[in-house]
Design a protein that fits this description.
Layout (H helix, E strand, L loop, with lengths): L5 E2 L4 H11 L3 E8 L1 H4 L10 H12 L4 E8 L5 H11 L7 E5 L8 H15 L6 E6 L10 H10 L4 E3 L4 H6 L5 H4 L8 H19 L27 E3 L7 E3 L2 E2 L15 E3 L5 E7 L2 E8 L7 E6 L7 E4 L9 E8 L6 E10 L8 E9 L16
Parallel strand pairs: 2-3, 2-4, 4-5, 5-6
Antiparallel strand pairs: 1-6, 7-17, 8-11, 9-10, 10-17, 11-16, 12-15, 12-17, 13-14, 13-16
Helix pairs in contact: 3-9, 4-5, 5-6
């Protein structure tokens, strides 16, 4: 049966998770994504789409037990998803994962690669969890990274739910008013979360009726040749559990992290002009993760790669939005020369003691085999 906006492709791994629940075993459910998965604009955590899907599993399989992992972090993309997938999700050995990055990724080849890298990382896990993608969209114009993401999802036969083909189409057809499901054109209210959950549940109900893979065929299927260099599948984070190569003025933040959304922990703090911190990294792709805050003024820093002081990347700690502090992620190198690199971060414009300091969250390093040194996002210093 063809379901509008619900693409089931080959859900064999999800079928196996369903079979495990039917047998009354323990099933681990994980949701990895951005603010919509986190539950932004839901009135309480239990009205978020992720929790509603978790409730379906519990009600449908009352003899099974479940672990619910909501690993949604607002304003984050699939590059950060690939870097944190092991720590936040795969370390818990999930049986079923929903991915949600289609409105935080841009519709570019770069994010097609980071998205594919994330999916390959998950599918390469020894548990081989069942994966489903939720492809959200902006309700004003239907924009998202679906065009690029779809190529990856189809290539790996990942089932997905397309909001552009369902709820957004209902808005175009006059069946639903935007204000009834979202107050800001993107983040769903309780009714919007319910509608998203209902679509995922339709897909799961369809999968529930499918026959499981015969026992003799339950070995790991062969992975297709990647569409992209897939150089972010081994992404890892450098935080303050690693001693920097040099440090002047930056202080370790040793406060304890409280849950997956407590993101401004494990890094370094600085506020004075001239403060600097230097790291030795390794890989062919490098990114800097830092805080942009609404509590202005905040310091402005610059990141330099391999001693190139003529071309720095500006890291502005000031955030012009009003919805809250942003976990910014800026690329320094993409498909560069594999091997060791030096990253230096220096405060260009400091702040007073009572003002908000600069917060360096982490460096993300990835990639092993790409050639041709190609810096990204280089904004020359004034």
């Amino acid at each position: 049966m063809k379901l509008r906006g619900i693409h089931l492709e080959n859900p064999r791994d999800i079928v196996q998770a369903v079979k495990k629940a039917q047998e009354g075993k323990h099933v681990v459910l994980a949701f990895l994504g951005g603010s919509i998965t986190q539950g932004s604009l839901a009135t309480k955590p239990v009205t978020c789409y992720a929790y509603l899907v978790y409730e379906w599993w519990k009600k449908t399989f009352p003899n099974a037990s479940f672990t619910y992992i909501n690993a949604g972090i607002g304003g984050t993309n699939s590059l950060f998803g690939a870097a944190r997938a092991q720590e936040d999700v795969l370390s818990r050995n999930p049986d079923f994962i929903i991915l949600d990055f289609s409105v935080n990724d841009d519709n570019t080849d770069f994010f097609m690669e980071t998205y594919e890298s994330l999916i390959v990382r998950i599918l390469s896990h020894s548990k081989r969890p069942g994966v489903m993608a939720l492809c959200n969209a902006f309700y004003e114009d239907g924009s998202s990274a679906l065009e690029r993401h779809k190529k990856v999802l189809d290539h790996y036969s990942i089932p997905y739910v397309s909001i552009k083909e369902t709820l957004y189409q209902d808005i175009l057809d006059g069946k639903t008013a935007i204000k009834d499901i979202t107050p800001d054109g993107l983040h769903p209210n309780d009714e919007g979360h319910k509608k998203i959950a209902d679509l995922i549940i339709i897909a799961l109900e369809e999968i529930k009726g499918m026959d499981p893979v015969p026992s003799e065929d339950t070995g790991q299927p062969n992975m297709p040749v990647p569409l992209t260099p897939c150089s972010y599948q081994d992404a890892s984070r450098i935080q303050n559990n690693i001693t920097p190569f040099q440090c002047r003025g930056f202080l370790r933040d040793d406060s304890i992290k409280n849950g997956v959304t407590d993101v401004f922990k494990g890094g370094w703090i600085s506020r004075c002009s001239g403060d600097r911190i230097v790291f030795e990294t390794e890989g062919s792709s490098l990114s800097v993760q830092y805080r942009r805050t609404i509590k202005r003024p905040a310091p402005v820093a610059a990141a330099y790669l391999d001693g190139d002081r003529d071309h720095g990347v500006i890291l502005d700690g000031n955030f012009d939005e009003e919805w809250g502090d942003c976990l910014a992620l800026t690329n320094l190198l993409h498909h560069g020369t594999p091997g060791k690199h030096v990253v230096e971060i220096e405060i260009l414009k400091g702040v007073e003691e009572e003002e908000t300091p600069f917060y360096l969250v982490s460096l993300i390093q990835s990639g092993k085999e790409i050639g041709s040194n190609t810096p990204m996002d280089r904004h020359c210093l004034m």
